Amino acid sequence: NAGVTQTPKFRVLKTGQSMTLLCAQDMNHEYMYWYRQDPGMGLRLIHYSVGEGTTAKGEVPDGYNVSRLKKQNFLLGLESAAPSQTSVYFCASSYLSSDQPQHFGDGTRLSIL
Amino acid sequence: GQQLNQSPQSMFIQEGEDVSMNCTSSSIFNTWLWYKQDPGEGPVLLIALYKAGELTSNGRLTAQFGITRKDSFLNISASIPSDVGIYFCAGQGNTGNQFYFGTGTSLTVIP
Out of A42, A48, A105, whose CB is closest to B101? Predict the structure, then answer.
């Protein structure tokens, strides 16, 4: 089993460019999450989804959009990248309820110049 | 957002020593999780706790859900070099679907 797979693993963007990060899970999990990890800040929740076709805002949603068109995929979009969005982005998924442990991907390292 | 205070921020210990770290919050949590993150990888779940006072072990690791429900502790016994990494706590309360993460404890084990 692949678990949670994130694509791409690395990316460098110029300010103002747009891009989409892809997260795919093969565990039939209902819940999916996008976090960003910055030095000294721990993991902060950007957006999450409690099932196919649903999305909700997390702690730091500004500047990001998400979509969950298929249960196994959760997309994170940056419409106009800013240097403040330079970070490591992690996707996670969990089974049937939000109190279940989350399984993480290996991250996408994004640099905005 | 919810603030989780995790301490210590970093630890340098000799191989074979025991390690203790803790996490505290300003509000009550119903679930505590402990994760380990290796460089270049995502966090991996170590232990999950669901009841106040619960003490759970996973090999040399033992974690406890504090009685006040505002704290949790992780102990590692007889540390080995592969214990090196960053350890994160995460807690979830009554409101919403969100887990809040601590800022991590960086562990270095000196052979």
Answer: A42
